[in-house]
Design a protein that fits this description.
By secondary structure, this protein is of the alpha+beta class. The chain is built from 5 helices and 7 strands. Strand 3 and strand 4 form a beta hairpin. The longest helix is centred in the middle third of the chain and has 19 residues.
């Protein structure tokens, strides 16, 4: 399936290009592809940090994030479900940056008094030095319950960064709105 804006994500198989992209994260991409050729229903453990990072959210909260990204935002990159969690594939570096953005937003929400503090459940951010189990390229739920919700379909899928995932998690606008009470000064006549 193509990860384009306004498309409805659905369960699908990983394409051969998508499998090549996933395998590129491995230290031995050809061996990973050979494994999937021999056993297409085999999940794999892949390192994070080079081709992708992964943000793991509780299933219901992760589904809300995913729905928001597709309904109101740019869509998502590949997304899998594994052991009651949503695995949102993100741009490399997201795992390092997202926790500090979430911490800042929680601190900022306390100062605004808008009641959002604690609204985001713990998100597990997997980046450089971490590894995750990814579902098999063949579609459908595996015995482990792992399955693709938005399967990788290209060698270079679009991956959301930390700002998009923050927006999807805390329901804030990443674009500042104009302050209606702000005083506007015409500086075009300055000398």
């Amino acid at each position: 399936m193509s990860s384009t804006r306004n498309a409805t994500p659905h369960v699908s198989d990983v394409t051969s290009d998508g499998a090549a992209w996933l395998a590129s994260a491995s230290a031995y991409p050809r061996s990973t592809l050979a494994l999937w050729t021999e056993r297409p229903a085999a999940p794999a453990v892949l390192p994070c940090g080079s081709a992708f990072d992964v943000v793991s959210a509780p299933a219901i909260f992760g589904r809300r994030m995913l729905d928001r990204m597709w309904d109101e935002g740019p869509g998502s990159g590949p997304v899998a479900e594994f052991r009651g969690r949503m695995l949102l594939f993100a741009a490399p570096g997201t795992a390092q940056r997202l926790p500090s953005l979430l911490e800042w937003e929680e601190w900022s929400a306390r100062g605004r008094g808008d009641g959002r503090t604690g609204a985001v459940p713990p998100l597990l951010c997997h980046g450089a030095g971490d590894a995750v189990t990814v579902p098999a390229p063949a579609g459908g739920p595996a015995p482990s319950g792992a399955r693709w919700l938005v399967a990788p379909d290209t060698r270079m899928p679009w991956l959301p960064g930390p700002e998009i995932l923050l927006w999807a998690a805390v329901r804030i606008s990443i674009f500042p709105s104009a302050d209606q009470d702000a005083k506007v000064y015409d500086v075009s006549r300055r000398r």
